[in-house]
Amino acid sequence: MRNKILITVTDIYGSKHFTISKIIKKLLLYSIIFVTLLLIFSGTAIYYLSKKVDILQKETLLLENKKDSLQSKNRELYEKIQAKSQELSSVNEKIQSIEELLGIKPAKEVNLITRVEAIHPDAALKSLMLQLIPNGSPVPYNGITGKYGNRIHPILKKKEFHQGIDLRAPLKTPVRAPADGIVEFAGPHKRSGFGVLLILDHAYGFKTLYGHLYKCKVKTGDFVKKGDIIAYTGNSGLSNGPHLHYEIRYLQISLNPLKFIKWDLKNFDTIFRKEKAVKWDSLVNQIRRHHLQTAQPSSLTAQK
């Protein structure tokens, strides 16, 4: 009986006796200890996992917030890229139109920067030439009433060489300078028959003459810029109606003004073929050298 334990259970029906071996007792004790330890370990594991789940949930929420923020930034960047793409497309179209005006045909693989660098010198030179040399119509162009060349004078009825053209224009139409220049003469000129006359002296040997004016807005010695109003059309002198007599001279040689009226950036090179009286190659080279010199900073500027 030493290795056994007697357990007595008593109820209304009497007593019952159970005998348990000490080995079984140890097993029960170990089982209880194991279960207790298991419960403690499980509780600890559950607590740890619960904390881990909380941390993971917070990290998940943080990642979701970051994801939302990144998606929002991504949308903003996409919209900016779309806007820049449209701007780039617009710039490309403008560059292409300028290239067409300048007669430049870039290679297909050339980037925009290279194309802009190619445009700049030509555009600046052509713009300078159109600023200094008479071009365009001094009044809104509505046709001509008298051509350049041989004709019968409408009043004197004599054959003569008409050194300019007569531009159709209502009385007191503003006359604008076709290029930068200085006023050589402004006022009545009876001997010529032009009535109120204005002469502009331009760069590189060019002059323009305006006859039959109503009045001049500038005086002799005034400097004018291209586009400035210099006079108003009239019917003074030997004239049979309001119009503008317009001449262009180069080194005292009369040129057909109609060729210069049609000269602009779009058909820039046509004047070189149509007007042979001007040595264009030499003139363009001189303007180019002048442009390069003025574009370079002076030594005093460079030292600052």
TrEMBL record:
Domain M23ase beta-sheet core residue range list: 161-257
Domain of life: Bacteria
Pfam families associated with the record: Peptidase_M23
SUPFAM superfamilies: Duplicated hybrid motif
GO MF annotations in UniProt: metalloendopeptidase activity
UniProt xrefs under Gene3D superfamilies: Glucose Permease (Domain IIA) (2.70.70.10)
Keyword tRNA processing tagged: no
Record's keyword terms, sorted: Coiled coil, Hydrolase, Membrane, Signal, Transmembrane, Transmembrane helix
Coiled coil regions, renumbered to chain: 53-101
Transmembrane parts of this sequence: 27-49
Protein name: Murein DD-endopeptidase MepM and murein hydrolase activator NlpD, contain LysM domain
InterPro entries: Cell_wall_metabolism_enzyme (IPR050570), Dup_hybrid_motif (IPR011055), M23ase_b-sheet_dom (IPR016047)
